[in-house]
Design brief:
heterodimer, A: Ubiquitin-like (UB roll), Rossmann fold, Dimethylsulfoxide Reductase, domain 2, 6-stranded mixed barrel, 29% helix, B: Glutaredoxin, 2 domains, 4 strands, elongated
Chain lengths: 893, 160
């Protein structure tokens, strides 16, 4: 970048062209008082505090709005500057509550800092101070308060909500003395479009916006957020044995200090009174507390007896080390590959699909690369709700000029930023994507060189493409032909293009086909294997990537080494000194059918809640009743744990050391911040104790480091990711040796398949298994809320999140509502062929006519009792995105 | 997101869309759009602002900020007969405020409010350029000069 030389207060300063005088001064250790400046935001020049004098220019100049120029001579102090600053500052103080000692921002307040530097004249101030009526504080938000009486009108909150968050909940309202930071219609913040992310609170330079229950921590611990797969780096503030604050790590490349509402305010579940504190044993239908010894005795005896009829569910919420030990236990001690976890319900088609086309089933690019993309195509991902911080990266890309394409049956929040929005009918993704490919080929927009040198199967693809002519595609998907054409052209031409998808692609009975359609589109246009260009499945849970990587799957050992491979099996037999099964195990969804058939008698389940999260949940409940022996290891007594014979109390993320692997393959350190409640223990320790009591060797780990070393030695893609190397910043796999810096994006030179080429696949349109008919006339799809997480085991115990969103709401189009005579807030029953639930109706335009949606967060409205367990034949994922329902009002009840 | 509360009739929404479209939905035309909308509806209720926000892709908080900044814009509907009482210097010194108080008393509303039956609304303004007639009252297009508090009942009777 071009450099500029200037002089500030006689000091020679070299800085980059384009920076402001204020930035040049501050970064060179010259203080200029300022209030409305924030490094994350564009300058606004409204506090008038940073005035300076520049030789050759008249009067005072606002330094935050003035770009540096070669040879510029700047003075930051003069009698006149002091006078102007002082007067401006006194006017601010005149309207500011003078109660510093009781203020949340005492000692961190920028107004105090500036006042200390500039000084105010007490006598003048007392003349200026007018008795303005107190403006009532807005404490409607459960997490923070807005006190207008301390506001200095710097506009940082307004600009943060606009420039960082893209929500625009705030702006200046009214005029003159009445001016205040206002929501739309001056309604309480809670009623506004505010998403409670708290980014404005973090940036408020005074005490106008403050966290309600904030205490100054004695120390902070750097760790990783426990909610979604983005893996934001956070500092938990600790006081005694309690988490009192959380803040984003500004140094982290993943989140750059930003957090969503769950990540910033969602930790009170950790010391919730409901936490499990001792092992429990069910006797005559009720649980009683038992000792760890008694629990281990019972478990080891029962497990020894059920070696041929055993299955384990590991967890996408626990660490890599926990996952490694649990799968090792299942394979080496129980002698079976019946090990799986909830990835089966979310990204199993990603693994089965992308492995076929690219050779690896993970995000090809890094989160940070989104901002460099020229086109971002989000399909089947409610990004701002389910992966809020990736949502921010996409919004940032948009501000930098990227074009956004959204394809989603629901008009999601991200549509506000979309240049092209395609509202396709649920379950028609293959048609839409293949239709786009057809347009691209017809118009010659494909990357022929890429297809020729880096792909195979092109002719087969061509053989099936003819079926996807634009008119049929438009009719099946419901998207106008020209919109599809525009989207295809934009994605093919405006490169680099990055594709983002999530459950909207995978949770279908043809989920693998959907994934292959996605990879076809990327390969045909050459939008893969480059920086900011690739296929990016967003993983849902904090460590679902890691649980897969660690072999928490029935067909692979750690690092995706197939159990059916003689070589791989021999390697692990030697390392674990055990005889291993060469047969693929059963999948998560198959467990329950096999339990019903009596083929599985004992189930060991860690950190999962299938009674609410599994499709057709009633069949899960029936199956659980049939088990001979069921052990649940968790942090709360979940709806599923109630079916257990033994319940074991585990540590939460804040109570353990280890690693999580986020959605961009980055292995990051998780650190113990507080002591666990009661007798709760680390998951790996519990599993090791069971193994040891069963007489197994190889489970004598002293600590997490021992396990990490074993993982390094057996998992090629993790070989170079040692505990020490990731102390500050995580490393992205593959990282094969200890001086490898990790892999930012995949498939740069060649694909991870044995031929080194990407594979194109011919595809056919397969309709969803259960579509609306006369009896069940509406299509039900499922999605997520920003404020809750999965079955709300954690978020349901954070009172503020409950306060914002307390209950399930059925989203339904006004046209359908009118037909049924439904009003907003009516209680309705939603019935499918498998179950019935009662919820409140919310009428809006987010769903198209004929489609309704529910989340699956709320135990009192178990949505998955309605969904269908129609499985994708390849990946065995159930079709939770499409089933048919009937809706009836039940107000009279 | 579609956040329109379904209160406006379809023809009202179409009218707003017609207005925003006539300015090509360009952000810098917002004030002109608000002008035209107020001309049409008589005021700028929340629902109108929401449609403008959706159409022009401008955050509602920003539109609200502009509506509340300019005293010309109003979010409350004016009465069928809008009463404006001049509070300019000349009218004020000749008893304009007493006239205003009398209107408030007679109609039972404050300045800036509208009667329940929608017939009258009261507002005060600064100088209509007829200082020779002070104190001056405007009702709709009609001007009343040298108004005394005692005249108020009679004036209102014309509209009842």
């Amino acid at each position: 970048m071009e450099k500029v030389k200037l002089y500030i207060d006689g000091k020679e300063i070299i800085t980059s062209r384009g920076s402001t005088v204020l930035e040049a001064a501050l970064s060179n250790g010259i203080y200029i008082p300022n209030l409305c400046h924030h490094p994350d935001l564009k300058p606004s020049g409204n506090c008038r505090m940073c005035i300076v004098e520049i030789e050759g220019r008249k009067g005072q100049v606002i330094s935050c709005m003035t770009e540096v120029e070669e040879g510029m001579v700047v003075r930051t102090e003069s009698q006149e500057i002091s006078l102007v600053r002082q007067t401006t500052l006194e006017l601010l103080h005149a309207n500011h509550t003078q109660d510093c000692t009781n203020c949340h921002s005492n000692n961190t307040c920028k107004l105090q800092e500036v006042t200390a530097f500039v000084g105010v004249d007490e006598e003048r101030l007392s003349r200026l101070r007018r008795s303005r009526p107190e403006i009532p504080v807005d404490d409607s938000n459960p997490f923070f308060t807005l006190d207008h009486n301390k506001c200095i009108m710097c506009g940082i909150c307004i600009r943060t909500c606009d420039e960082v968050q893209g929500v625009n909940a705030l702006d200046y309202g009214f005029r003159g003395f009445s001016t205040l930071v206002s929501t739309y219609n001056n309604q309480p913040i809670k009623e506004s479009v505010c998403e409670s992310c708290g980014e404005c609170v973090v940036r408020c330079p005074v005490g106008a916006l403050y966290v309600k229950e904030s205490k100054v921590p004695t120390h902070e611990v750097k760790t990783v957020c426990a909610y979604c797969g983005v893996g934001c780096n956070i500092y938990l503030g600790i006081r005694g044995n309690k988490i009192v604050s959380a803040r984003g790590d500004r140094e982290s490349i993943v989140n750059k200090g930003r957090l969503c509402v769950k990540g910033r305010y969602g930790y009170s579940f950790v010391d919730h009174p409901d936490r499990l504190r001792t092992p429990l044993k069910k006797t005559n239908g009720s649980f009683e507390e038992i000792s760890w010894d008694e629990a281990f005795d019972i478990i080891s005896e029962k497990f020894l007896k059920s070696k041929n009829k055993f299955a384990a569910l590991t967890s996408a919420k626990v660490t890599n080390e926990d996952n490694y030990v649990i799968q090792k236990f299942t394979r080496a001690v129980m002698g079976t590959n019946n090990i799986d976890h909830c990835a089966r319900l979310c990204h199993a088609p990603t693994v089965s699909g992308l492995v076929q086309s690219f050779g690896s089933g993970a995000m090809t690019n890094s989160i940070d690369e989104f901002t460099g993309a020229k086109t971002i195509f989000s399909i089947g991902s409610n990004t701002t709700a389910a992966h809020p911080i990736i949502g921010l990266h996409i919004k940032e890309a948009k501000r930098r000029g990227a074009k956004i394409i959204v394809a989603n049956p629901k008009e999601i929040d991200l549509c506000r930023f979309a240049d092209i929005y395609m509202q396709h009918y649920p379950g028609t993704d293959v048609v839409l994507l293949m239709g786009m490919i057809n347009v691209i080929l017809e118009e010659g927009l494909q990357d022929s060189e890429f297809i020729k040198t880096r792909c195979e199967g092109y002719d087969e693809l061509l053989s099936s493409i003819a079926g996807f002519d634009i008119d049929s595609v438009s009719e099946i998907t419901g998207v106008p032909a020209n919109t599809i054409r525009d989207a295809a052209r934009l994605y093919a031409v405006n490169k680099p293009a990055s594709l983002v998808y999530a459950m909207g692609i995978t949770q279908h009975s043809h989920g693998t086909d959907n994934v292959l359609a996605v990879s076809n589109l990327a390969l045909v246009t050459g939008n893969i294997g480059r920086e900011s260009s690739g296929v990016n499945p967003l993983r849902g849970q904090n460590n679902v990537q890691g649980a897969c990587d660690m072999g928490g799957l029935p067909n692979v050992y750690p690092g995706y080494q197939p159990v059916e491979s003689k070589q791989a099996a021999a390697k692990f037999e030697k390392a674990w000194s055990a005889r291993l099964s060469r047969e693929n195990g059963l999948t998560h969804t198959e467990y329950f059918t096999e339990i019903e058939k009596g083929n599985i008698k004992a189930l060991y389940q860690v950190g999962e809640n299938p009674v609410l999260s599994e499709a057709d949940a009633n069949h899960v409940k029936k199956a659980l009743d049939k088990l001979d022996f069921f052990v649940v290891q968790d942090i709360f007594l979940t709806q599923t744990a109630k079916y257990a014979d033994i319940v074991l109390p585990a540590c939460s993320f804040a109570e353990k050391d280890g690693t999580f692997t986020n959605t961009e393959r980055r292995v990051q350190r998780v650190r113990k911040a507080v002591d666990p409640p009661g007798e709760a223990k680390d998951d790996w320790w519990i599993t090791c104790e069971i193994a040891k009591r069963m007489g197994a060797a190889g489970f004598d780990y002293e600590n997490v480091t021992d396990i990490v070393e074993e993982i390094n030695s057996l998992t090629p893609s993790y070989a170079g990711i040692t505990f020490d190397r990731i102390r500050e910043e995580g490393i992205q796999w593959p990282c094969t040796v200890s001086d490898h810096k990790g892999t930012k994006f995949l498939h740069a030179e060649k694909f991870a398949r044995s031929s080194g080429k990407g594979r194109l696949f011919p595809l056919l349109y397969k309709a969803s298994v259960e579509l609306p008919d006369e009896e069940y006339p509406l299509l039900l799809t499922t999605d997520r809320s920003l404020y809750h997480y999965h079955t709300s085991t954690m978020t349901g115990r954070v009172s503020g999140l409950k306060d914002i969103e307390e209950t399930e709401l059925l989203r339904i189009n006004p046209a359908d509502a009118q037909k049924m005579g439904l009003k907003k807030g009516d209680k309705v029953s939603v019935k499918s062929r498998r179950g019935i639930i009662k919820v409140m109706a919310d009428i809006d335009h987010s769903c198209p006519e004929g489609v309704a949606s529910l989340t699956f967060h709320f135990p009192d409205a178990p949505t998955n009792e309605l969904t269908i367990c129609a499985l994708d034949p390849v990946s065995k994922i159930p079709e939770t995105k499409v089933c048919a329902v009937r809706i009836e009002t039940c107000n009279s009840e | 997101m579609s956040s329109i509360k379904i209160k406006l009739k379809k023809q009202d929404i179409d009218k707003i869309k017609e207005i925003t479209a006539s300015f090509n939905n360009e952000e810098h035309e917002l004030i002109n759009v608000l002008h035209k909308c107020q001309q049409h509806f008589g005021y700028l209720p929340a629902e109108v602002q929401e449609v403008i926000s959706d159409e022009m892709d401008i955050p509602t908080a920003k539109i609200y900020g502009i509506v509340t900044f300019y005293s010309f814009f109003t979010m409350t509907p004016k009465g069928k007969n809008p009463i404006s009482i001049c509070m300019g210097t000349a009218c004020y010194v000749r008893g304009g405020e007493k006239v205003l108080d009398e209107f408030k008393k007679e109609l039972g509303i404050e300045a800036g409010q509208t009667t329940k039956d929608g017939k009258f609304s009261i507002s005060s303004l600064r100088c209509v350029g007829a200082c020779g007639l002070a104190p001056v009252v405007l009702i709709g297009e009609k001007t009343y000069g040298r108004v005394a508090p005692d005249d108020v009942k009679e004036i209102l009777a014309e509209y009842k």
